Amino acid sequence: MNSVYDVIIRPIVSERSFDLMEQGKYTFEVAKNAPKEEIADAVEKLFNVHVVKVNTMNVSGKKKRVRYQTPGTTRSWKKAVVTLAAGETIEIFGNQQAAE
């Protein structure tokens, strides 16, 4: 891999990922061929934190019907859940507060 931006593609924004953030776990879409060690190094360099654990999973594409019932699938991708050392956080979205 060339840079950390080739490994970490984007953060995953979902209700479950926000719940995991309270436990110090952050979810990212990563390159399909990136190993756990490379993902941990990229997160440490990019956000200046210490990674304790990395869990990865391959998310397969869902079957969808495309225009006139033509079968197709959405793209498959790889997800990584990164656990940080106790007391460390990543400010992914800055200091934005949830709308109440």
Automatic annotation (TrEMBL):
InterPro entries with a match to the protein in the record: Nucleotide-bd_a/b_plait_sf (IPR012677), Ribosomal_uL23-like (IPR013025), Ribosomal_uL23/eL15/eS24_sf (IPR012678), Ribosomal_uL23_CS (IPR001014)
Annotated keywords: Ribonucleoprotein, Ribosomal protein, RNA-binding, rRNA-binding
Pfam families with a match to the protein in the record: Ribosomal_L23
GO cellular component: ribosome
Keyword Repeat: no
Function, as annotated: One of the early assembly proteins it binds 23S rRNA. One of the proteins that surrounds the polypeptide exit tunnel on the outside of the ribosome. Forms the main docking site for trigger factor binding to the ribosome.
Assembly behavior: Part of the 50S ribosomal subunit. Contacts protein L29, and trigger factor when it is bound to the ribosome.
Family as reported in the entry's similarity comment: Belongs to the universal ribosomal protein uL23 family.
Name under which the protein is recorded: Large ribosomal subunit protein uL23
Organism field: Thermophilibacter provencensis
